[in-house]
Each structure stands twice: as C-alpha cells, then as structure tokens.
Amino acid sequence: xxYKYVEEWEQYTKPSGKVKERLNKYNKLISIxxxxxxxxxxxxxxxxxxxxxxxxxxxxxSHCGLIMGEHQIKWxxxxxxxxxxxxxxxxxxxxxxxxxxxxxxxxxxxxxxTKGEWYNNLQLEKNFLFKTKNTLQYVYSIRLQGDYDxxxxxxxxxxxxxxxxxxx
Length: 168
Description:
This protein is of the alpha+beta class. It has helices at residues 64-78, 93-99, 117-121; strands at residues 2-13, 19-37, 47-55, 83-89, 123-124, 128-132, 135-143, 157-159. A hairpin with a 5-residue loop joins strand 1 (2-13) and strand 2. It is elongated, with a radius of gyration of 20 Å.
C-alpha cells in the first residue's frame, strides 16, 4: 500500500445549522497491490507474482509502484522466494518501454525512484511469455536469491524467444 499525506478543508454543518470549515489531516491510501504464490508457473515455493496494482486517479505520476516495489522485494526475499515477477500485456507499449528501460518518464520526480532495486534489477524474460485466455503478456522478474535459473513450466507459459518488441 502507498499513502500520501493530505491536508484538505471540509465544510460541515453544526447542529445549530451554522456551516463551518475544518482542516482534516490524514494519510490517504492512494494505491494497493497484491503478491501471491505463483501457482500459475507451478513453483509456488519459488516464485511470487505481484499483481492487481491499482492507483487512484490524480496520483498516477506519484511513482507509488516503484516505491511499493521496493517493499515487495524486501518482503518476498524475507519469505524465502527466489523470484518475484510481474506480467504485462504485450500491447501496452508505454509501460513495456518503461519496464524495458527503452523510455524514461519526463516527470522530474521520476529520477529519484530509478536508484532502487525494482527499477534497476527488473528484467524481461526473453525465452517465454505468459498467456491468460486471449491475452499474451511479457514476464518481468527480479532474482531475489542470487542468479537463479528460472524456467517455469505450465499451461500459462508460452515458450517463445523474443526481444520485448512483439507486435500482434
């Protein structure tokens, strides 16, 4: 979860009917993500899949995903996983360019978040893809315990060499 400290004025009505304002200060939940044992790759004790990332509109360029990623890496490593991975639709060109470091966000605050393990160690798996129903997805992973040779096998894994620039 990622929070943003917020201060905002709110109008309220007193029992007397008089309208007043008060300043609310709080940490607002702006994004969440889940990590699950990877039953998709038939190695739930080795790999953990980060999925279901959601962020509120208005906070899209806050880089919460990069911030959360650092915490998820630490958590997965502490739990003994060897692989942390995410998947993305091959047709989502913008996000795939970012993950493959072929594009850099122009927002100045992005640079401070490029020093972490998530940004620097996330790698494209070039020997296979992930498929659910009709959606073909790239797989991006981080090796958590040294240079582990990850070769998942399942009905969701499509063995296919690629360079991260598939057009379908």
